[in-house]
């Protein structure tokens, strides 16, 4: 590497721990609760195939040509209207279609983060956001939290001197990894704190539509449009393979994000945007998303029951009200990363929680996905996890003097 | 904007001049020679529709799920083999599928460019590369050149003290904007100079397959694999709407580029990769690309003839041997940017050359695309351009004392 000189920021690019774990766990025969994938059983294959055919019959030249960096107009309008149904007031001109929500995070980093600038994140937070922001070399502040999410006081305690915290990155709904939702009261308190100190927010909402019994409260962006940059995605309600996400920016921010988008990949594939719009334009998601909710709710119930039955005493978790994940805190003396090889040897996999912390990871935490296994396999996988944990705990006791 | 603080690099993000021009010129009735688009008449719509249907019938769950950041294995193998046919020796493990070649440029900037680091570019160079690199805040060195491309002496003259020039960005084949190809002798001389001073090269080759009479010489990457990062694209030989490009990196560089790719958008849409592979896997491009060459060659000939007939004395150009563009240098006293409104008023459009220079733009230059107009419209458009220029030149003479 003497010929090529790497940029300093490259030191902040690293292999994803999850990716490395997934490689191990994708061996046949492993009951993996490690993935962050939606269930392929939920993909509306027939509707997508028909939509592809219609787009390539009705507007093939437009779908296959270079297109606008902002995104496909009718899709931007759909997004604005969809978010209107959630209480946001969005002009289609504020919508930027991104190549997956991950690209939205990258553009946020590119436009808002200087090397050494503070960025506030939840504890724990979404690993992919840390990966997206890292090359822009922020200094993270981990917001203290409880079961309802970050504490308003942790926002009031942020240093607001120059260079100032650029934004707080929040995942209000069924957070990856913890599954928790911010209750209405916490949303209001966080907004009041952020407005009081002039701290902008980046609100990431890939899971909000996947509620089980009741929809989550309105987005933060609905209450403070000029202070919240909102990110959404089609990956969890339709399919991730199209790589289609979007961001909604306050008008003052939009032009720079658009220019960053253009520099990054010119535009998101036009055919993908048109096919997705063709699938959803007549209310398809109104019928489709409830089927995902029902499926995931049943799988969640199976995992809740299995955890109740098989986890050793001292294990902590909250039953999620939506999304895809359970977040466990193991009994004292259990290190989720250290135990993973034993789990894999017994035929199961999970993601150790350590990857999701900007600082001071809690080694006792782990994430379990319930959406890609059948209820029977969930029961079996969780039972095996319980056995691995008990074996470890019993071994530790025996070793004690 | 007091609430949101922009990163310093945002100052280097700006609206694309070309984009702004295209907005004006996309009015109906304008004969536009301004676009950088391939001709939609070349899109193999039927083959793509059939391939979509096969992919969504045979492997829909895989095509619509999250996928590997490196890209779809069989497509990476195809790329390695295709480049082998051009004299490169590429392992599929060196191929990274990108969301258009533009993303390859962004990843190069992210991994290799520090703020203030020198990057050498051709004079003029591809505007989109400047846009991709700009947010990483390089200091450009414009390489002096002649009709055969950059001069080897301009590479020997680069400052190689710390921090050192990170790379020279070169477009050997039918360059956008000038259309010129680097002859074999110039390639060898540039490689010798780069190797002598230890300067890595980024070789961008979106147009290499679009030759008219004879293929261009072998890529630079074929002669110096460890010192050249190569970028390719399906946008000009198939369709840009899928946003499919690729880079081939020396093995030492690959992991950081892959990590940057993962942080940028996780992966390029799997369905797009599978559909394109399905279209091309059995030699489709061997039949298809010659039809594009023949079409573009005829359009190029029409423009060459029209320029010969209509350009005022003192206008300079080279007839391109491939690609999509003519590059004109107008007679003294003609400023292409200043004349554009008059051209648009007369119903034609072009791109002023100024946008393609990192420094000291030559205001007399402009770019004409010949691929999206019929030969008749080309003749008519160039005749109008000639009239606009003559009117200006005559008016200038009359104004002279």
UniProtKB/TrEMBL annotation, chains A, B:
Its cofactor is pyridoxal 5'-phosphate. SUPFAM superfamilies: PLP-dependent transferases. One of its GO terms (biological process) is alpha-amino acid metabolic process. The gene is avtA. InterPro entries: Aminotransferase_I/II_large, Class-I_PLP-dep_aminotransf, PyrdxlP-dep_Trfase, PyrdxlP-dep_Trfase_major, PyrdxlP-dep_Trfase_small. Keywords: Aminotransferase, Pyridoxal phosphate, Transferase. Belongs to the class-I pyridoxal-phosphate-dependent aminotransferase family. Residues 42-381 form the Aminotransferase class I/classII large domain. GO terms for molecular function: pyridoxal phosphate binding; transaminase activity. This is 2-aminoadipate aminotransferase. It comes from the Bacteria.
């Amino acid at each position: 590497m003497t010929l090529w000189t790497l940029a300093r920021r490259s030191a902040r690019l690293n292999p994803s721990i999850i990716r490395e774990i997934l490689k191990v766990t994708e061996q046949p025969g492993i009951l993996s609760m490690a993935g962050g994938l939606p269930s392929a059983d939920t993909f509306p294959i027939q509707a997508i195939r028909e939509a592809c055919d219609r787009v390539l019959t009705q507007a093939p030249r437009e779908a296959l040509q270079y297109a606008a960096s902002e995104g496909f107009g009718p899709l931007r309008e759909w997004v604005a209207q969809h978010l209107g149904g959630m209480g946001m007031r969005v002009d289609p001109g504020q919508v930027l279609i991104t190549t997956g929500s991950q690209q939205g995070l990258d553009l946020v980093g590119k436009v808002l983060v200087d090397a050494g600038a503070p960025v506030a994140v939840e504890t724990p937070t979404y690993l992919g956001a840390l990966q997206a922001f890292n090359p822009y070399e922020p200094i993270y502040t981990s917001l203290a939290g409880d079961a309802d999410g970050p504490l308003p006081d942790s926002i009031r305690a942020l240093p607001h001197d120059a260079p100032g915290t650029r934004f707080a990155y929040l995942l209000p709904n069924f957070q990856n990894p913890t599954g928790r939702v911010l209750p209405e009261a916490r949303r209001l308190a966080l907004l009041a704190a952020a407005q009081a100190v002039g701290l902008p927010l980046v609100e990431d909402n890939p899971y909000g539509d996947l509620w089980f019994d009741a929809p989550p409260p309105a987005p933060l962006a609905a209450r403070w449009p000029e202070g919240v940059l909102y990110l959404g995605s089609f990956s969890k309600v339709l399919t991730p393979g199209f790589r289609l996400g979007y961001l909604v920016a306050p008008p003052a921010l939009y032009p720079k994000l658009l220019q960053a988008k253009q520099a990054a990949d010119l535009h998101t594939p036009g055919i993908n945007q048109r096919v997705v719009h063709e699938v959803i334009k007549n209310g398809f998601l109104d019928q489709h998303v409830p089927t995902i909710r029902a499926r995931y709710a049943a799988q969640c119930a199976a995992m809740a029951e299995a955890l109740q039955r098989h986890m050793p005493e001292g294990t902590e978790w909250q039953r999620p009200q939506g999304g895809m994940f359970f977040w466990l805190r193991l009994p004292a003396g259990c290190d989720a990363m250290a135990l993973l090889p034993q789990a894999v040897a017994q035929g199961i996999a999970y993601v150790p929680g350590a990857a999701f912390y900007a600082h001071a990871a809690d080694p006792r935490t782990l994430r379990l996905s319930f959406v890609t296994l059948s209820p029977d396999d969930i029961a079996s996988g969780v039972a095996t996890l319980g056995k691995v944990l008990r074996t470890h705990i019993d071994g530790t006791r025996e070793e004690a003097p």
